[in-house]
């Protein structure tokens, strides 16, 4: 495929920014293909993101905690609402659900081991439980997902927490994908499917169709697991205020919100680009919803989607998350998108440079993470991978602590929205924090002012004995 | 260490969560059998009593009286035993089980025997929708009619329906078989991956990628055997429906999506 | 999120108030925020109007009762002005009232005129329909409105878990098909072309008392009934006109109907017995009035059924 001309020729009038060369190529490809285009990875188009928020640490107004050494707790307890055994994590970060099938056995094992080394949890993901992953996990989420691939009540009993997957940020309202290239005999057998099919998972659960049924489904799983472990509902962030209110009333212990920046192992490019809202906008909406239904102190909020560093995590916690889950960045810790000299050849095999790879869905991952190919899988060493995952999780925690200490906190969970300001009005409006250097919060300030005017006016009218005068 | 006792709220808005309940210990135990009355018990109490009897007292045969169409009754039983529920249960009855033989003499609500791994569940009257959802093994027998989406995402085992079935029977079914004696509603077998649906009556319409197949002597032999086991009258003839396999794969792949090894 | 229930006696009046309370109370987990009833008593020559003059969430400051009394007198005076002969107006709760009167004119101008009084909402208007809805569970509402004494032929009811709108009476079902006499609806599900239909019906001159999609169904059906369509036909057209997933119950002066959309994603259990038909989101509600061994089944997709008293 060739790109249309974009030469510096002085006789060229210009080029459409709407029908740019990429768009034209995309149309050409779709005209050949006859279907939506698939890809892995996170969002391509720019959206308001964490980079537009800044911390306002203590200087003289606040006592700062020694940044690199003094006590700053990171212990994170999730799901103490009804569970006899709430999930206790040493750090406020854990590894989100990614299926065996999307990921290789080695990747699942390395993530599990790395998470355990860091004192935190990992999650089964869609394809069912693989015993080596469970063995290596000290804290393990078991997912109740729409497809119920490989779902087994015996495995349910082994869970430290149960996650109902209802939606994901990168493709809200849609089910998962696994292209036939990755549906090996083993993966297919675990999922009770024919090998080699292009698997499109259902978007709805098979045994409940609405929130009334969901609350009964939660009751069922609590009955089956004897109220031992927390129940978490994972939602893709879209109509967050209403969805979280509804979810909260269904009776979970934890609500997990996945922002639109979230990645995927395979999804329609269009769905990844065009569904959901940024996590930065979702967290304040979720907090408001939990407060409005009176469950802000009972239900814990876990968030995920496009998390890259400890700054992102600290900002999530400040806006009201109890814990943050990471997916794609943990794969990067395993070498995703890294050229390994003498081993990988990104450009030669996938046509893109390392750093620009989004080909998880093809099953041809050059570093052995998102593949089932026995040869490619050899490129990921479980022990070394686990070490890097641990290092990354440990660093994230240090970064969160560093920012928390600078803001004068001896516990990372003491971070609050008031510790933040925004660099753009968009970010200020979405995150509901003031624009840097001002006390202006778009929307909130106006509403507050209107309310003040209304109250003043009412007082004025009342004092006037019914408004004998024009106001 | 976060103090959790201070923030634990003991009631959910709907009143469906009952964390702090103990088994009522009201069953009458006689030798290998036990009976208890569920009229005044909550689902949690019913399940705790049932588990106490099955796991704690090792009683192989338990009867639950007056279940009152309650939800989530007899869920997650992972051992061989025989449970009779004398009456009707609500949603999620006899689900997530592996091994038990459960007999419900009344009707059941939605999602009965959901994700059953093995064992037998027999319902004498009608069932609601989502019957046998994501079921993986064992036999699920409904002597009456069933609602919509019977055997949705079914992954194994056999579902037998004495009466009619609603819309989207066998929706996204993956494995196993369904034997419907009466009529089936519109969209039957929609997007099924595999498995077989046998229908004795009329089929309103087939869903996407569901096609009719030839009945083989093995099919007839299997149906005969199942009907003999459950003492049911067999309709004279069945038609068999399977996956057309047109939806198994995308028609085209991009160059980077082509298979490398495997 | 909600639970719905309906009951109709085909062989003469019964204790529909008490029966509906038992049905709704057994489904409290489906909606503990508010409960609502549409009850049909003996048809009368008089028109019965149920209305409220304030919301339970309003703070009752010192002139609250004074203002309510003023508004109540205003209702009576407006009824007289339009030529109605008032039989009686009685308080049913701190803010809800029941008025019975003789009136031959059109209902729409009457309802509009009454609702023009600040804080006033007409909950129902008809010769036998009476809608009662308030915060709390069915038992609480029944006790405060003395519904245990209500005898009649048919009723529908609703328990609500407030989600998309606030916990208030405006968001509670049943919905009276303003301004059509004696038609009311309860609904479980959601309509995904609600705004299209709302704008269309507003262009036809209808107005809505709430932001709730369920109210569309009531007005949609009543408009077709007023055009001369039978209830059953009107309900059948609704199956293709309304998008989304829904199961609804509708009541008119002499009938009770149910409809389920083609996706069949919202539950309903039905028992048809001698002299009585009972329907509800869950079987437990039917068991609450018929504890003996009965047969019940789930109506199928695209099914429309109507029973008459």
UniProtKB/TrEMBL annotation, chain A:
Keyword field contains Acyltransferase: no
CDD domains membership: GltS_FMN
Gene3D superfamilies: Aldolase class I
Domain Glutamate synthase: 83-409
One MF annotation (Gene Ontology) recorded for this entry: glutamate synthase activity
Alphabetical GO biological process terms: glutamate biosynthetic process
SUPFAM superfamilies: FMN-linked oxidoreductases
Keywords from the UniProt entry: Oxidoreductase
InterPro entries named among the record's database cross-references: Aldolase_TIM, GltB, GltB_archl_type, Glu_synthdom
Family stated for the protein in its record: Belongs to the glutamate synthase family.
Annotated protein name in UniProt: Glutamate synthase (NADPH) GltB2 subunit
Organism: Actinomycetospora cinnamomea
Lineage: Bacteria, Bacillati, Actinomycetota, Actinomycetes, Pseudonocardiales
From TrEMBL, chain B:
Gene Ontology MF terms in the entry: oxidoreductase activity
Entry-linked InterPro entries: Glu_synth_asu_C_sf (IPR036485), Glu_synth_lsu_3 (IPR012061)
CDD domains the record matches: GXGXG
Signal sequence interval, chain numbering: none
Name by which UniProt lists this protein: Glutamate synthase (NADPH) GltB3 subunit
UniProtKB/TrEMBL annotation, chain C:
SUPFAM superfamilies the UniProt entry points to: N-terminal nucleophile aminohydrolases (Ntn hydrolases)
Residue ranges of every copy of the Glutamine amidotransferase type-2 domain listed in the record: 2-308
Claim: GTP-binding is one of the keywords in the record: no
Protein name: Glutamate synthase (NADPH) GltB1 subunit
GO terms assigned for molecular function: transferase activity
Entry-linked InterPro entries: GATase_2_dom, Ntn_hydrolases_N
Keyword set, alphabetical order: Glutamine amidotransferase, Transferase
Domain of life: Bacteria
Origin species: Actinomycetospora cinnamomea
């Amino acid at each position: 495929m060739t790109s249309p001309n974009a030469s510096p020729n002085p006789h060229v009038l210009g080029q459409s920014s709407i029908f740019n060369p990429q768009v034209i190529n995309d149309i050409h490809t779709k005209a050949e293909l006859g279907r939506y285009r698939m890809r892995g990875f996170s969002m391509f188009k720019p959206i308001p993101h964490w980079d537009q928020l800044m911390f306002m640490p203590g200087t003289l107004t606040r006592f700062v905690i020694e940044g690199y050494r003094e006590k700053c707790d990171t212990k994170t307890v999730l799901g103490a609402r009804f569970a006899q055994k709430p999930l206790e994590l040493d750090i406020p970060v854990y590894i989100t659900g990614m299926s065996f099938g999307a990921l290789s056995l080695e990747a699942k094992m390395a993530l599990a081991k790395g998470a355990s080394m860091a004192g935190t949890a990992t999650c089964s993901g869609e394809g069912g439980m693989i015993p080596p992953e469970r063995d290596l996990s000290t804290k393990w989420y078991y997912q109740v997902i729409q497809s119920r691939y490989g779902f087994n009540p015996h495995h349910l009993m082994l869970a430290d927490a149960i996650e109902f997957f209802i939606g994901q940020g990168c493709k809200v309202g849609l089910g998962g994908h696994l292209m036939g290239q990755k549906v090996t005999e083993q993966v297919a057998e675990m999922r009770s499917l024919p090998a080699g099919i292009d698997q499109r998972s259902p978007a709805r659960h098979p045994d409940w169709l609405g929130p009334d049924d969901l609350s009964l489904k939660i009751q069922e799983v609590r009955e089956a697991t004897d109220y031992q472990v927390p129940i978490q509902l994972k939602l893709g962030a879209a109509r967050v205020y209403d969805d979280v209110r509804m979810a909260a009333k269904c009776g979970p212990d934890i609500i997990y919100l996945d922002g639109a920046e979230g990645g995927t192992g395979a999804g329609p490019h269009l769905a990844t680009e065009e569904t959901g809202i940024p996590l930065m906008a979702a967290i304040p909406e979720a907090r408001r919803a939990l407060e409005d239904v009176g469950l802000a102190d009972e239900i814990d909020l876990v968030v995920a989607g496009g998390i890259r560093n400890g700054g992102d995590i600290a900002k999530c916690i400040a806006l009201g998350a109890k814990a943050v889950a990471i997916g794609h960045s943990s794969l990067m810790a395993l070498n995703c998108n890294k050229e390994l000299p003498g081993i990988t050849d990104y450009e030669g095999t996938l046509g893109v440079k390392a750093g620009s790879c989004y080909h998880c869905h093809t099953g041809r991952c050059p570093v052995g993470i998102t593949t089932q190919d026995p040869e490619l899988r050899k490129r990921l060493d479980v022990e070394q991978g686990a070490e890097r995952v641990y290092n990354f999780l440990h660093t994230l925690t240090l970064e969160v602590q560093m920012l928390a200490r600078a803001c004068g906190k001896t516990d990372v969970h003491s971070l609050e929205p008031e510790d933040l300001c925004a660099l753009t009005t968009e970010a200020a409006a979405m995150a509901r924090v003031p624009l840097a250097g001002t006390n202006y919060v778009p929307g909130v300030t106006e509403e507050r002012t209107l309310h003040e005017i209304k109250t003043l006016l009412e007082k004025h009218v009342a004092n006037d004995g019914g408004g004998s005068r024009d106001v | 260490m976060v103090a959790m006792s201070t923030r634990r709220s003991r009631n959910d808005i709907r009143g469906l969560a009952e964390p702090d309940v103990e088994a009522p210990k009201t069953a009458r135990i006689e030798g290998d059998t036990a009976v208890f009355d569920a009229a005044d018990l909550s689902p949690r109490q019913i399940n705790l009593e049932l588990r106490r009897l099955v796991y704690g007292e090792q009683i192989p045969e338990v009867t639950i009286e007056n279940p009152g169409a309650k939800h989530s009754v007899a869920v997650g039983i992972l051992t061989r035993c025989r449970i009779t529920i004398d009456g009707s249960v609500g949603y999620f009855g006899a689900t997530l089980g592996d091994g038990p033989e459960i007999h419900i003499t009344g009707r059941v609500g939605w999602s009965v025997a959901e994700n059953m791994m093995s064992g037998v569940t027999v319902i004498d009257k009608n069932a609601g929708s989502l019957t046998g959802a994501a079921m993986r093994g064992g036999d699920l027998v409904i002597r009456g009619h069933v609602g919509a989406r019977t055997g949705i995402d079914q992954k194994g085992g056999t579902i037998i329906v004495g009466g009619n079935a609603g819309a989207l029977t066998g929706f996204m079914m993956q494995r196993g078989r369904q034997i419907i004696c009466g009529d089936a509603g519109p969209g039957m077998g929609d997007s099924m991956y595999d498995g077989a649906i046998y229908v004795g009556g009329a089929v309103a319409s087939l869903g996407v990628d569901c096609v009719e197949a030839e009945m083989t002597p093995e099919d007839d032999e299997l149906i005969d055997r199942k009907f003999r086991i459950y003492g049911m009258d067999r309709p004279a003839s069945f038609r068999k429906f399977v996956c057309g396999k047109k939806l198994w794969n995308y028609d085209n792949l991009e160059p980077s999506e082509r298979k490398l090894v495997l | 999120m909600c639970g719905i229930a309906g009951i109709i006696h085909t062989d003469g009046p019964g204790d529909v108030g008490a029966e509906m309370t038992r049905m709704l109370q057994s489904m409290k987990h489906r909606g503990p925020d508010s409960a609502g009833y549409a009850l049909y008593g003996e048809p009368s020559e008089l028109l019965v109007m149920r209305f409220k003059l304030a919301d339970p969430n309003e703070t009752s400051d010192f002139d609250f009762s004074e203002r309510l009394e003023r508004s109540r007198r205003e209702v009576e005076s407006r009824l007289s002005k339009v030529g109605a002969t008032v039989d009686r107006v009685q308080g049913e709760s701190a803010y809800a009232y029941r008025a019975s009167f003789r009136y031959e004119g059109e209902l729409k101008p009457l309802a509009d005129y009454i609702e023009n009084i600040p804080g006033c909402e007409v909950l129902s208007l008809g010769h036998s329909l009476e809608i009662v809805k308030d915060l709390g569970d069915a038992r609480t509402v029944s006790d405060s409105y003395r519904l245990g004494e209500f005898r009649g032929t048919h009723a529908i009811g609703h328990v609500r878990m407030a989600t998309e709108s606030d916990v208030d009476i405006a968001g509670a079902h049943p919905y009276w098909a303003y301004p059509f006499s004696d038609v009311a609806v309860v609904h479980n599900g959601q309509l995904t072309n609600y705004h299209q239909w709302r704008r269309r019906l507003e262009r036809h001159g209808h107005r809505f008392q709430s932001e709730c999609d369920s109210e569309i169904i009531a007005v949609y059906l009543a408009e077709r009934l007023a055009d001369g369509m039978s209830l059953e036909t009107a309900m059948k057209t609704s199956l293709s006109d309304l998008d989304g997933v829904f199961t609804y119950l509708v009541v008119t002066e002499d009938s009770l109907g149910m409809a389920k959309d083609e996706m069949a994603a919202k539950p309903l259990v039905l028992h048809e017995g001698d002299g009585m038909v009972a329907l509800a989101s869950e079987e437990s509600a039917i068991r609450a009035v018929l504890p003996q061994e009965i047969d019940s089944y789930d109506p199928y997709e695209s099914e429309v059924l109507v029973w008459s008293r």
